[in-house]
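Exam revision sheet. Question 4 asks you to relate a sequence to its structure. Input first:
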Amino acid sequence: MVASREAHIYRRDVDKLSVSEREALLKPYLPSKTPTSTRNPKAQPIRQFFKTHLHILVYTVMHAVFSLYIRLRQAYHVVLNRLFAILYYHHRAPELIRQDIRGLNKIPQHLSVILETQDGEQGYAGLEKLLDDVAEISAWCAGAGIPMLSVYEKTGALKDHLQRTHHTVSSRLHAYFGRRVPSLQIQAPHVPSFLDGDESGQPPSSAGHLSILLISADDGRSTLVDLTKTLTEMAQRNKISANDISLDLIDAEISESVMTEPDLLIVFGPYIQLQGYPPWQIRLTEIYHSQDSYGVGYQVFLRALHNFAKAHMKFGR
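Answer key, structure tokens:
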């Protein structure tokens, strides 16, 4: 009833107003008049045509310049790798490897590499390729005097074939060193280690010793999660104080359960893809990769050692 009465009063008041008065009441609420465009409507499609083709031209020029840069960079690295292959090649002789690194003021005591199976190399063929790469890198490390090598393979295929890996690496070391073969130890987290084919410790060889650690994605973030759960449960049961949990404690536990921090990490690929590599162990690690390089190569290994020797480590306080 109230609404109808108010509407009736409103209509009665409006009927008393003239047309000009009604327009004056509504004029403040109307949008401002836009000036009519004086442009020729036929010029709009022509301008849009030139604008579109200008964008296409700029994009094409940028794409051509970038493609030319990529081709020149790839050609440069191919020539550089060929020169390194001619000037520096091991010929499966440890003496030549030691000669290639003779001028370096330091070498890593713990070297780590990331390996992966290439596209189309799955199953038995992929495993054989991984074993061959591990054997080659192990021989290079033994020749260069690097005592510790850790190999990261995301899926853990190498960890499932520990004894076979030991046999392949041992055969390759015999091919490089002959009779004076350094002692070899293959191990993985939470798995019994193999030393010269046995699960028991044997005295190291007089020709040196090489330790190989096989790790996978399971030894990365999941290890941190498990350690966090363990420390939390121990703190809740009053077996350890919360003030006792420190970076030194976490570092000691992870180093004991997985591995210590490597000095140098080599990524055999054109891009730095860590693929779930244990994050805690590479806080201060020197990481090296070679652009436009695919697969394991002695030239990449040698350039990584030269790059590591020139690196300046600033750890701070």
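Marking note for examiners. DSSP finds nine helices and seven strands in the chain.
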